Amino acid sequence: MADSTAPYRVKGDTGEWEVVVGLEVHAQITASKAKMFSGAATAFGAEPNTQVSLVDAAMPGMLPVPNQECIRQAVRTGMALDAVINRWSRFDRKNYFYADLPQGYQISQLYHPLVGPGEVEILLDDKDENSVKQIGIERIHVEQDAGKLMHDQHPTKSYVDLNRCGVALMEIVSRPDMRSPAEAGAYLRKLRAILRYVGSCDGNMEEGSMRADVNVSVRKPGGEFGTRTETKNVNSVRFVMAVIEHEAKRQVELIEEGGEVAQETRLYDPDKNVTRSLRSKEDAHDYRYFPDPDLLPLELDEAFLEECRSSLPELPDAKRKRYEGLGITPYNAGVLTAEVETARWFDALLDAGAEPRQGANWVVAELFGALNRRNETLATTGISPVEAAELLKLVADGTISGTLAKQVFEIMLETGDAPSRIVEERGLKQTSDTGAIDAEIDKILAANADKVAEYKGGKPQLFGFFVGQTMKAMQGKANPQVVNERLRAKLD
């Protein structure tokens, strides 16, 4: 089996190459129901041009007003990433002309962003909690989104939909600290989890509320950074990993053939799994940035920062450590904290009285297995944490065996009935009645005298056969512990 922590290398004709990756993640601030500088709605999937205010359409005399909730969510996100929060920040105009940008400029932040350096901790191997790597965050700035050109509505014309125009974005810029597609995937999944825990972004990449610009360059291991390309608007973790793999190989082949990598913007075609050139890469001076004259600088006071800080929930890493402290295995703790919905469901299970280790094993193995089989999620299943805790309690107190619990769980999934009712109505209670168990054991030993002789003659592995036969005779309702005890007493 390949070592998941071994360095990722691209093999070329001249030897091995190292890939260098940085991501610029655009995360839509979905916690606010209004845009960055206007009160227009931001609901996904609305009819084109139905969520456009006069500010978004850049009508003469319209002035932008910062949405405080968008600023608050960006600050909370920065705090969750253990980043520097800049008490003084400023909006700049990024000037360029495009049909989906009515103002002719985008309001962004270049020189003085809201959030400074931070970091995200990833695991290079989910099963090894020591395989930790820190990925640096350079900055988070807030900006407004542009609209969208629609090329498939007319045979010769492109239509413009301005619904997204002015939507609040956080641009989370990483340092070039990632060295493989897997690291980039782990970083993006972890970043998405943190945003969803904080509640600042829903992380729905398929709806475009989170997308990544992927910066890739190659170099000889440990050498100088090479020229990077930027592949725009990649909207899934799998595609981000595919872009890195493709771009690294393309760049290595180009360099080894005597060519040079052009610093450019590229697009990814998921159908063909290739990137293609879009335009030469612009530098900041090409956009003629300058302070936006319509907006005052943002100045944050201590009371605002304290409110942001105190409103943060328990974050994935802290929750995982707490779970491990309850006796849950590191792997299970990682699975349970990967998605905020899972963690909330499991916390509710613990609140309902489930024993942590038993509950974690059951959720990861039994519940997730059933949901996958039935193509359901925690949000759509009819099983509540309270009912699950009740089922686990019936096992813990000996009312039903682990085998019977699987049966009861299947009936719960099909009928929606409570576990105690199922056990009562269907007569599934486990028996610890030694008289009834002894009677069945005596019959089985009498019917298998030859095997009893073999067992006593030095074949202890036959003990499992006697247990199985007893459980079968009692239709799985015998308490396995009592069965074991009574068999040992009679055989030994």
From TrEMBL:
<feature type="domain" description="Asn/Gln amidotransferase">
    <location>
        <begin position="344"/>
        <end position="491"/>
    </location>
</feature>
<dbReference type="InterPro" id="IPR006075">
    <property type="entry name" value="Asn/Gln-tRNA_Trfase_suB/E_cat"/>
</dbReference>
<dbReference type="InterPro" id="IPR042114">
    <property type="entry name" value="GatB_C_1"/>
</dbReference>
<dbReference type="InterPro" id="IPR017959">
    <property type="entry name" value="Asn/Gln-tRNA_amidoTrfase_suB/E"/>
</dbReference>
<dbReference type="InterPro" id="IPR018027">
    <property type="entry name" value="Asn/Gln_amidotransferase"/>
</dbReference>
<protein>
    <recommendedName>
        <fullName>Aspartyl/glutamyl-tRNA(Asn/Gln) amidotransferase subunit B</fullName>
        <ecNumber>6.3.5.-</ecNumber>
    </recommendedName>
</protein>
<dbReference type="Pfam" id="PF02934">
    <property type="entry name" value="GatB_N"/>
</dbReference>
<keyword id="KW-0547">Nucleotide-binding</keyword>
<dbReference type="InterPro" id="IPR014746">
    <property type="entry name" value="Gln_synth/guanido_kin_cat_dom"/>
</dbReference>
<comment type="subunit">
    <text>Heterotrimer of A, B and C subunits.</text>
</comment>
<comment type="similarity">
    <text>Belongs to the GatB/GatE family. GatB subfamily.</text>
</comment>
<keyword id="KW-0067">ATP-binding</keyword>
<dbReference type="Pfam" id="PF02637">
    <property type="entry name" value="GatB_Yqey"/>
</dbReference>
<keyword id="KW-0436">Ligase</keyword>
<keyword id="KW-0648">Protein biosynthesis</keyword>
<dbReference type="InterPro" id="IPR003789">
    <property type="entry name" value="Asn/Gln_tRNA_amidoTrase-B-like"/>
</dbReference>
<comment type="function">
    <text>Allows the formation of correctly charged Asn-tRNA(Asn) or Gln-tRNA(Gln) through the transamidation of misacylated Asp-tRNA(Asn) or Glu-tRNA(Gln) in organisms which lack either or both of asparaginyl-tRNA or glutaminyl-tRNA synthetases. The reaction takes place in the presence of glutamine and ATP through an activated phospho-Asp-tRNA(Asn) or phospho-Glu-tRNA(Gln).</text>
</comment>
<dbReference type="InterPro" id="IPR004413">
    <property type="entry name" value="GatB"/>
</dbReference>
<dbReference type="InterPro" id="IPR023168">
    <property type="entry name" value="GatB_Yqey_C_2"/>
</dbReference>
<dbReference type="InterPro" id="IPR017958">
    <property type="entry name" value="Gln-tRNA_amidoTrfase_suB_CS"/>
</dbReference>
